[in-house]
UniProtKB/TrEMBL annotation:
Transmembrane segments: none annotated. This is MobA/MobL family protein. It comes from Rhodanobacter lycopersici. The keyword Protein transport does not apply. InterPro entries: MobA_MobL. Residues 222-240 have a biased composition (Basic and acidic residues). Pfam families: MobA_MobL. Keywords: Conjugation. The keyword Transferase does not apply. Residues 143-164, 216-255 are annotated as: Disordered. Residues 26-215 form the MobA/MobL protein domain. Gene3D superfamilies: 3.30.930.30. Belongs to the MobA/MobL family. It comes from the Bacteria.
Amino acid sequence: MAMFHYRIKSGKKGTAVDRFNYITRQGNHSDRDEVVWTEFGNLPAWCEDNPKRYWQTADRHERANGAVYREHVVALPSELDASQQHALVDKLVQNLAGNKPYQYAIHAPNSSLASAVHPHMHLQVSDRLPDGIERAPAQEFMRYNAKDPSQGGRRKDSGGRTPLQVRDELIATRKMIADLQNEALAEHGHATRVDHRSHWERGIKREPERHLGQERISQMSTEDKAKYTADRKRRTECCKHHPPTHAAVRAAAGP
C-alpha cells in the first residue's frame, strides 16, 4: 500500500563521504544488499565522473560550520514496478536537485516487521550552484564572492531565507512529491493515492506512527511483531472509513 513519507536533513563538514557510502552501500555499509539502482549527475569537470571524489573534496574544503549536503529520503509506492519507480525517481531528482551536483540510490529492503519490500530513494545533493566558471577543487567550496565570483567558490542555494519561507518551501516540496507519486499511480492504473498532509489536517484522529528503528525491532518477539503489524493494519483500515471532519478540511484549506 502506498504511504507518504518524506524527510530532509543536512550534513556537516566531514560527514559527506560516509553518507555517500551509506547511500551507495560501499565501505562499512557494503554488507547490506538493498541497492536497486544508483546514479549521479551535474558534477564539475574535475571530478571526472567520480561522485565520491566530489564529497571527499567537500569534506576537506567546506567551511567549518557549513552544510556539505542535503539528503532527501522519499518512500516510493510499492504498487509500481522497478522500472516505474525508476521513472518516478528521475522526475523527483529533477525537481529536488535541479542543476546541482547529486548522487542518489533506490533501496528496496525487506520489512523487519512484515514480509514486504519497502522501496525508497536516498538523494544526496550539494547546495553549490553551477555558474559556468571553472574552479579548482579547493576553490569550489570557498565562500562565494559576490563582487567577483571567479575569485570565490560557487554560491550556495540555501542562504537568506526566513523561517517562514523555509516552512512554506517544505510544504510545497512535500506537495510536489505527493503530486508526482499520484500522477505515476494514476498513469499505471492504480487507484491508491498518497497525501502529504498531516493527520490533523486530514481530520484523522490518531497519532502518527513512530519509526521504530532496526535496533528496537530486533528486540521484539515474533508475537510482538505480529501484534504491531495487525494493529497498524487495523488503524489504517479504520481511517479509510472515517473521512476528515469539516472543521479539519476548512483548517487545512486555510483562509
